[in-house]
Amino acid sequence: MSATQKTVRRDYIVSALICATAYVGLVFGAKVAIGHFDPQGPLLMAMAVTPAIPIIAYFFAFGRYLARIDEYQRDLIIRALLIAVAATISISAVWDFLQAYGGVAPPEPFIFTTGFIALFGISQGLTKLLEKFGRRS
Amino acid sequence: MKNRLKVLRAERNWSQADLADRLDVSRQSVNAIETGKYDPSLPLAFKIARIFEMTIEQVFTDEAEAA
């Protein structure tokens, strides 16, 4: 890997780790602060959405990473991303219809966010495996 | 699309990592291009040709044309 590509990868890993750490801190911090201060109205809303800020920041870091990595690596990640998006939307659509017509309970909060992240991890591994064994996914 | 990357690299005694450094891409990218798993974009193909001091046609061959 070239020096520039190493720097790009390092920057991304550092940004992702900062976002992940901030996310964990804010999830627990917001829960404790809301329980302790019992805010109301706009302040409650502001405190409730703070854990989403690192997630949004992560997507900026991810976009910056995609723009800076070499075209082949970007091609692999985009393919993995498309697989994860398609799988998440498919599962979500099936669940929606089951909920609408089959009486199935609504999904737990955050299930599709965490599910998407898990599926993206799986699809990246799958894409790399398919590439290694000479098949385009 | 076929290419002569492996031969050209061997003639210069360059490893995949050496070529990757010169192209400012990952070693995996060089490997994918060499093995025909990935066709580079036109700017990258020009860059490859420039590094070997050749034209694109001397490095890459259209398989349909070659057949």
- Sheet with most strands: strand arrangement of chain B: 1-2
Which structural class fits the helix and strand makeup of chain B?
mainly alpha
Query: How many extended strands of chain A?
Result: 0
- Which word captures the global form of chain A? flat
Global Rg of chain A:
19 Å
Largest sheet features of chain B:
2 strands, antiparallel
Taking pLDDT < 50 over at least 5 consecutive residues as the criterion, the unreliable ranges of chain B are none
Mean pLDDT across all residues of chain B, rounded? Answer: 92
The number of domains of chain A is 2
- Structural class from helices and strands of chain A? mainly alpha
Q: Biggest β-sheet of chain A: count, sense, barrel?
A: none
List the total number of helices of chain A.
5
Helix-strand string of chain B? EHHHHHEH
* Largest interface by Cβ-Cβ < 8 Å: A-B, 14 and 18 residues
Helix content of chain A: over 70%
Characterise the protein shown here.
The complex is a heterodimer of chains A (137) and B (67). Chain A is an all-alpha fold. Chain A is 84% helix and 0% strand. In chain A, helix 1 (3-37) packs antiparallel against helix 3 (52-68) and helix 4 packs across helix 5 (111-132). Chain A is flat, with a radius of gyration of 19 Å. The mean pLDDT of chain A is 91. With 67 residues, chain B is mostly helical. Chain B has a single domain (2-60), classed as 434 Repressor (Amino-terminal Domain). Helix content of chain B is 61%, strand content 6%. Chain B has a two-stranded antiparallel ribbon. Chains A and B meet through helix 1 and helix 4 of A and helix 2 and helix 3 of B.
